[in-house]
């Protein structure tokens, strides 16, 4: 009897492991190996020339992937344009007048449609373009899991609720990531993406005028002169998220946090006397540690609720449902 019990327990456990494996195991780095072998070269060369013209585009593409994955999973939903009868995610608070890089995605998509029509999803294009951006800007590389399909819907409301705002506290951030199955450790590693790119005055004004956990001369001499105190004046003026090396993917974001030079309130929350201080310290002294954890967190983020099998579709144009 006891023996029978333990055999059925083993069978149950094996079955559960199988389910676990097949839920995220549907994505595969070799997914387009025979259906579209050109995909890697097309994305890489297009992203290279985009970044050669405007280094910030690497940052913008990486951020698009984050904003895609956090809203109903990595399904290309952020790429859909609004129409008179369809509201997408582009005007959600974290996206409006802020997300960019859509023309690069269009360029990749049209080249890919010529080479292998109807095969490669827009969601996968974002995943590969993000990795390539990081590599081109001198960050780490990794194998991107592929096989996501594109959504036929979008959610303005989920974009507003699920993407964390820059006013977030450490516990606000931790809970938004936990809701996506990501740990506080993943959250800190992924935040290292702010080693590249820019933010608008409207998103760091309160931090540079009202917060006390910011190095005084950095706030007063570097930032206040470019970002006026009055709400509504100069809202779109830009400052680099990493004041030291804004177009290189390195660990200066974390070095800045240790010296209280985070640009956003939410950035400095990661090093403000709380539970994530030690991780920030460790990344600030080891880019190898940062790169390793960033890669595994990017792969985890890329696994959020993919559409596979007969769910979703392969869009012909990333901006429109077929
Ligand atoms: C931890 C929570 C996060 C918050 C609160 C946050 C917030 C922000 C804000 C407010 C901006 C500036 C937007 C603007 O002013 O127009 C920004 C930019 C950016 N974010 Fe985040 N972010 C977070 C996490 C991430 C993650 C996980 C990634 C990618 C893995 C990412 C990648 C970027 C990049 C690359 C930029 C610069 C984009 C550009 O220059 O076009 N962020 N973020
Ligand atoms: C988005 O930005 C535009 C242009 O600045 C503005 O007119 C519009 O009200 C904003 N939309 C939302 C939903 O905030
Ligand atoms: C952070 O969490 C607190 C407590 O749950 C909540 O009142 C506040 O609105 C949240 N702030 C943000 C920016 O999400
Ligand atoms: C700073 O805090 C004060 C008092 O809470 C508030 O009135 C003001 O709008 C805040 N922001 C700036 C940029 O001063």
TrEMBL record:
Span of the signal peptide: 1-25
Entry keyword Oxidoreductase: yes
Details of cofactor binding: Binds 1 heme b (iron(II)-protoporphyrin IX) group per subunit.
Plant heme peroxidase family profile domain residues: 26-322
Reactions catalysed, as given in the entry: 2 a phenolic donor + H2O2 = 2 a phenolic radical donor + 2 H2O
Biological process terms in GO annotation: hydrogen peroxide catabolic process; response to oxidative stress
Chain residues that bind substrate: 164
Site annotation Transition state stabilizer: residues: 63
Gene3D superfamilies from the UniProt entry: 1.10.520.10, Peroxidase, domain 2
Active site, renumbered: 67 (proton acceptor)
Essential cofactor(s): heme b; Ca(2+)
Subcellular location per the Swiss-Prot or TrEMBL entry: Secreted
Keywords: Calcium, Disulfide bond, Glycoprotein, Heme, Hydrogen peroxide, Iron, Metal-binding, Oxidoreductase, Peroxidase, Secreted, Signal
Gene Ontology MF: a single term: heme binding
Pfam family, one: peroxidase
Binding-site residues, Ca(2+) 2: 195, 242, 245, 250
Superkingdom field: Eukaryota
Gene Ontology terms: cellular component: extracellular region
SS bond partners: 36-116, 69-74, 122-318, 201-227
Residues holding Ca(2+) 1: 68, 71, 73, 75, 77, 89
Enzyme Commission identifier(s): 1.11.1.7
Annotated PANTHER family: PEROXIDASE 52 (PTHR31388:SF24), PEROXIDASE 72-RELATED (PTHR31388)
Family in the record: Belongs to the peroxidase family. Ascorbate peroxidase subfamily. Belongs to the peroxidase family. Classical plant (class III) peroxidase subfamily.
Function: Removal of H(2)O(2), oxidation of toxic reductants, biosynthesis and degradation of lignin, suberization, auxin catabolism, response to environmental stresses such as wounding, pathogen attack and oxidative stress.
Protein's name according to its UniProt entry: Peroxidase
């Amino acid at each position: 009897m006891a023996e029978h019990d333990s055999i059925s327990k083993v069978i149950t456990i094996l079955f559960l492991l199988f389910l676990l494996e097949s839920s995220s195991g549907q994505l595969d780095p070799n997914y387009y190996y025979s259906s579209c072998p050109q995909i890697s070269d097309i994305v890489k060369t297009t992203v290279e020339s985009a970044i050669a013209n405007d280094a910030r585009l690497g940052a913008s593409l990486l951020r698009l992937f984050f904003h895609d994955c956090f809203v109903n999973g990595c399904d290309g939903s952020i790429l859909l344009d609004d129409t008179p009868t369809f509201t997408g995610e582009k005007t959600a608070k974290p996206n409006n007048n802020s997300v960019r890089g859509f023309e690069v995605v269009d360029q990749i998509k049209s080249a890919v449609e010529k080479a292998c029509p109807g095969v490669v999803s827009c969601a996968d294009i974002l995943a590969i373009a993000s990795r390539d951006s990081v590599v081109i800007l001198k960050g780490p590389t990794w194998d991107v899991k592929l096989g996501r399909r594109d959504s036929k819907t979008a959610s303005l409301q989920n974009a507003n609720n699920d993407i964390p705002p820059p006013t977030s506290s450490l516990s606000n951030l931790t809970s938004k990531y936990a809701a996506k199955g990501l740990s506080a450790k993943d959250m800190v590693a992924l935040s290292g993406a702010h080693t590249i790119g820019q933010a608008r005055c409207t998103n760091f004004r309160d931090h540079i005028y009202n917060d006390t956990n910011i190095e005084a001369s950095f706030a007063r001499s570097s930032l206040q002169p470019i970002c006026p105190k009055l709400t509504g004046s100069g809202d779109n003026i830009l400052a680099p998220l990493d004041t030291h090396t804004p177009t290189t993917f390195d660990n200066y974001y974390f070095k800045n946090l240790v010296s209280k030079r985070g640009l956003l309130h939410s950035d400095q929350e990661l090093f403000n006397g709380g539970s994530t201080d030690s991780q920030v310290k460790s990344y600030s002294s080891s880019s190898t540690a940062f790169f390793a954890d960033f890669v595994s967190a990017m792969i985890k983020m890329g696994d959020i609720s993919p559409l596979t099998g007969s769910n979703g579709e392969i869009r012909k144009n990333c901006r429109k449902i077929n």
